[in-house]
């Protein structure tokens, strides 16, 4: 029997997470994409803590008009600004089982333009 979309994505996500892990020096930039919003967390996996988080439902981003892809780029810039203010310059990118395409790619490109290295 074929896998459902959710089961397939969970399998891909677990494969990615066996390789990608964040440390205090190089935390994990985790992306979660729902149908309407996009969420990003910077996580230290050794401590098990979220260092910072940004989403498209945050005050400044949600009030602006634009497509979901444009808002994903805004989230990428915002997470880069917050990370640099917190002293984080390098991260490990975790696409969360999503394809590196569309909103996820826009977010990653904007974070790179904002100054994050990955």
TrEMBL record:
Keywords of this entry: Ribonucleoprotein, Ribosomal protein, RNA-binding, rRNA-binding
Gene Ontology BP, a term: translation
Alphabetical list of InterPro entries matching this protein: Ribosomal_L18 (IPR057268), Ribosomal_uL18_bac-type (IPR004389), Ribosomal_uL18_bac/plant/anim (IPR005484)
One GO location term (cellular component): cytosolic large ribosomal subunit
GO terms for MF: 5S rRNA binding; structural constituent of ribosome
Keyword Transcription (UniProt): no
One Pfam family cited in the UniProt record for this chain: Ribosomal_L18p
TM regions (residue ranges): none
Domain of life of the native organism: Bacteria
Quaternary assembly: Part of the 50S ribosomal subunit; part of the 5S rRNA/L5/L18/L25 subcomplex. Contacts the 5S and 23S rRNAs.
Protein family per UniProt: Belongs to the universal ribosomal protein uL18 family.
Function field: This is one of the proteins that bind and probably mediate the attachment of the 5S RNA into the large ribosomal subunit, where it forms part of the central protuberance.
Protein name: Large ribosomal subunit protein uL18
Organism: Draconibacterium sediminis
């Amino acid at each position: 029997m074929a896998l459902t979309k959710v089961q397939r994505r969970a399998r891909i996500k677990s494969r990615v997470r066996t390789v990608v892990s964040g440390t205090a020096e190089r935390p994990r930039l985790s992306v979660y994409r729902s149908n309407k919003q996009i969420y990003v967390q910077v996580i230290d996996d050794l401590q098990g803590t979220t260092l910072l988080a940004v989403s498209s439902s945050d005050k400044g981003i949600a009030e602006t008009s634009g497509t979901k892809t444009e808002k994903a780029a805004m989230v990428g810039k915002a997470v880069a600004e917050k990370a640099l203010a917190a002293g984080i310059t390098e991260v490990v990118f975790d696409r969360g089982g999503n394809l590196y395409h569309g909103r996820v790619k826009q977010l990653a490109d904007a974070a790179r333009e904002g100054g994050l290295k990955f």
